[in-house]
Amino acid sequence: MGVVANAPLVVAPAMATNGYFALKTNGWMTWRSQLSLSLLSSLGYVALVAFLAKRGSLARLIRALPVSYLVGVGFGLLMFLAHLGLLDESGMGVVGCGGAEASPTLSSSKRPALILAALVLVAVVVGDVRRPDKKHVVVLAATVCGALAAAVARAAAGDAVFESKDRHGGVRFYGMRFPGTWTGAQWAIALWTALGYVTGKIFDILASVFLVVFVLLGFHEAPKRTGAGAVDALGPDKFRDYVASTPKLQKIILVDGAAWVFGSLLGCAPMTCFVESAVGIAAGKAPARFERRLRGRTNPS
Amino acid sequence: MVTGLLFLASAASGRETVEIVPTEVSGALLVYTAASLSPILRHVDHANREEALPAMLGVLLIPLLYSVHGGAGLAFVFYGILVVAGGTFTWAEHHTLIPLFVAALLLVAEIFSMDFAR
């Protein structure tokens, strides 16, 4: 992304599509087949995006979208991140998981970690209020101090307080492998799933594109130095048109797609989400949130 | 590029390096990031209901569905229905969005067909 698109952007391609593995192809499709399906989907996606970009359709499409929609789904993505940041399994631990288990964990044994998380949040907010021109320094200082405090707590009380929650991952070249024993119905579901990957990825891009350029412009190219100022200076409609026409955007989208292809070939990060889901399922253990969702569907109580 | 190279080095050095910053710290920063970018919401045209309602649906559905594309796709289907049902569809303004609307319908159908497959 840095070399080709010159954009300060880190993405995990096709991140959300791990849900397909956990919820749809689980049980009859091996993880190798699922990753192979991901590779096919990624090739289809890159071909589609390159075709649209060459014809100028991508820019026309974004220009035709209402600004409100782009802003709404972009902020929805931010709310998703904030949600993950608040959850017990992936963030501060302020709230538990979904459904009936959505209970605050303030009384749990993780109280020191919660206090640390709250202190970090307060520190960055106070730093932002008092020195908005130095917010990057404040964030970096809070991160380093938080990591040091966690290291001290680990040394004093053991790993249990800041226990790692992600145990999956790995690097492996796996190669294409589709079983010859699939029935016609299974092939139909596989191709239907691949269509879901591609269309889903398009909406992932639409959700992130406005936000990405909003942030990029805000920090690097804006007429004013803040993200909101960049939109204000141009006006929302002109800002959207700028987003649609900037060559950097097409490079970002194509690099993102190429990373999906590359990750599918290696079966590793940035495809860790697929490996996590597929290997987890192979071991009989779906990722926690999907496991809960499945459980919720089969047992409403 | 510096971040990418550092990430590569941390990945090569093992999981422990990546876990130096606990999720409690990164989670707090995620919440701060979302809050600090909230001014973007003022660019939703609240007076235009057929655009504002799908936008708010996107804000809500993406985190609740645990799915960016699921929330964005459903919000776009909702937008298309509102435009057609509200009588504001014009070929000149909206014809470019028809393929995207079809893609959104396919995506939503694909999402809801998960129960079938299982």
Gyration radius over CA of chain B: 20 Å
Based on CA inertia axes, which overall geometry of chain A fits?
globular
Q: How many DSSP E strands of chain B?
A: 0
Give the DSSP E fraction of chain A (strand runs of 2 or more residues): under 5%
Largest interface: A-B, 92 and 74 residues
Which series of helices and strands of chain A comes N to C? HHHHHHHHHHHH
Question: What is the molecular shape of chain B?
Answer: elongated
Uncertain spans of chain A: 164-176, 219-227, 268-301
Rounded to an integer in angstroms, the radius of gyration calculated over CA atoms of chain A is 21 Å
Low-confidence stretches of chain B: none
Helical stretch tally of chain B: 8
Q: What share of residues of chain B is helical?
A: over 70%
Q: State the major sheet of chain B.
A: none
Q: In whole angstroms, how far apart are the ends of chain A?
A: 46 Å
Account of the 3D structure:
The complex is a heterodimer of chains A (301) and B (118). Helices cover 67% and strands 0% of the residues of chain A. With 301 residues, chain A is an all-alpha fold. Chain A has two domains: 201 residues, no CATH class; 51 residues. Chain A starts with 17 loop residues before the first helix and ends with a helix. In chain A, 41% of the residues are buried. In chain B, helix 4 packs antiparallel against helix 5 and helix 5 crosses helix 7. The model of chain B has no long low-confidence stretch (mean pLDDT 85).
Q: What is shown here, in short?
A:
The complex is a heterodimer of chains A (301) and B (118). By secondary structure, chain A is mainly α.
Protein traits:
heterodimer; A: 301 residues; mainly alpha; 12 helices; globular; B: 118 residues; 2 domains
Task: Itemize the secondary structure elements and their pairings.
The complex is a heterodimer of chains A (301) and B (118).
Chain A: H1 18-25, H2 31-55, H3 57-64, H4 67-86, H5 111-130, H6 135-157, H7 184-221, H8 227-234, H9 236-245, H10 247-266, H11 272-282, H12 288-298
Helix pairs in contact in A: 1-11, 2-7, 2-10, 2-11, 3-9, 4-7, 5-6, 7-8, 8-9
Chain B: H1 2-13, H2 15-18, H3 23-36, H4 49-65, H5 68-85, H6 91-94, H7 98-112, H8 114-117
